[in-house]
Amino acid sequence: MQIETRRFAGFEFWSVGSLEIQRNTDGSLAEYSHTLPEGVRPNRYSAGPFCRFGLPGAPNAAGVYAITIGDELQYIGEAVDLAQRFGPSGYGKIHPRNCHHDGQSTNCKLNSRVLEAAKRGSAARVWFHPTDDRLVMESRLIGVLLPPWNGRGVSTRDPSEQRDQPRVARGSGPGRRPGVAEQFRNALSALLADAERSGAPSVQVQAGQLHRLVGGYPGPHHRMPVCCSAMRSLMVPGDRFIQQPPKGNGASLTIEYRLPRLPALK
């Protein structure tokens, strides 16, 4: 039997299958929620409702996975063990402890959104790319594709969501190696390289997006001016500004970089 594959930003993923949601005896979707003890602070996805699901045929392998609803990409993540990630100790079953403010809020978010899609009659499908370089690859794919369930536009991030967020070196102070500017340039170069490999004619990068990818934003010690300067430093003829903040530097700075890249001007 031929395995169905799909490419995301130039990388080939194979179809693991659709998530199978548990149903009641009457065929309706079995859903539930949790009531937390008084005094327990919930995370922002704790309300649910949730469902129980499985992913038959998922391998006990490390790599990067993609979740689609219909033909639309919704989420990119990484896993040491894909079967475990979508099993009852991962996304497949939400336990009360997951709903605490320091619990697994990503599990709550993914589970409830899978249920929402199922209520609309749409199945969530999982695609997988086995790799030992899963952290770097996950980071690059999120930066290029901006899947909506990864929450790239969210201004705050739960500490419990760190596992499924981009993993690249966080900004360090001036004088350390690599320097802050170099970290931004390296992250931007990786985004451009991945977009170029996918065959896109251009890619738009927003400063807020890039800074979140590197780390340290939002926060009191962000390096947004350095980030914006790094973005401008990699511009070549044919690149253009899509949006510029009134003061020049800011999270809304957006530059469209043409692909393939030309050598930077000296």
What does this molecule look like?
The chain has about 270 residues and is an alpha+beta fold. About 25% of the residues lie in helices and about 20% in strands. The chain has helices at about 80-85, 105-120, 135-145, 180-195, 205-215, 225-235; strands spanning about 5-10, 10-20, 20, 30, 50, 55, 65-70, 70-80, 125-130, 200-205, 240-245, 255-260. α4 packs across α5, α4 packs across α6 and α5 (about 205-215) packs across α6. Mean pLDDT is about 85; it is low at about 150-175.
**Into which percentage range does the β-strand content fall?**
15-25%
Given the C-alpha coordinates, what overall shape results? Answer: globular
Provide the helix percentage. Answer: 25-40%
Q: How many helices?
A: 6
- Largest sheet entry: 5 strands, antiparallel
**What do the pLDDT scores average to?**
84
In short:
With 266 residues, the chain is of the alpha+beta class.
What's the layout of helices and strands?
Elements: E1 5-8, E2 11-18, E3 20-21, E4 31-32, E5 50-51, E6 53-54, E7 63-69, E8 72-79, H1 82-85, H2 105-119, E9 124-130, H3 134-145, H4 180-197, E10 202-206, H5 207-214, H6 224-233, E11 240-243, E12 254-258
Antiparallel strand pairs: 1-2, 2-9, 3-6, 4-5, 7-8, 7-9, 10-12, 11-12
